[in-house]
Amino acid sequence: MPAPFHLAIPVTNLADAEAFYGTLMGCEQGRRSEHWIDWNFFGHQLVTHLVAEMPTAPAPNQVDSKAVPVPHFGVVLNMEEWTVLAEKLSTAKQSFVIEPYIRFAGKVGEQGTFFLLDPAGNALEFKGFADESQIFAK
Q: Where is the Glyoxalase/fosfomycin resistance/dioxygenase domain (predicted)?
C-alpha cells in the first residue's frame, strides 16, 4: 500500500464530526483533544479541527453534466467496498451531492463515484474501481 496521507479539515462541531466519521462512516477514532479528533479514514490520517466558522463553501465544477464541489477529498476503494459503503449510506438516508453512479461504463477508467458533504460542509468523493490498474489509465 502507498504511504497514507494526512489531511486536516475544519469542522464547526466535534460531536457532529464524531457522529458522521465515527458512527456513520465507521472510522476508528485515534487521539483527540477538545479542539480536534484524529480518524483512521480508510487507512489514512484525517484530522477534524474545530473552527468557529467554515471557510468559503465549495464551488461547483461541471463533470459529466454534474456540479462537482471543489475542493473535495476522498478515497479510492475496490468496487466491492464502494458498493457496500454506497448502500450503507443510502440505507442511512445520507443525502448525496451526487448520487452513486458508474462513470466510463465499459471504457478505460470505469469507476463508481459519489459525492456527499459532512456535517460541516466539507465535500467528499468516494470512487470504486473493479480494476485498480485503471485508476490512472488514459
A: 6-126
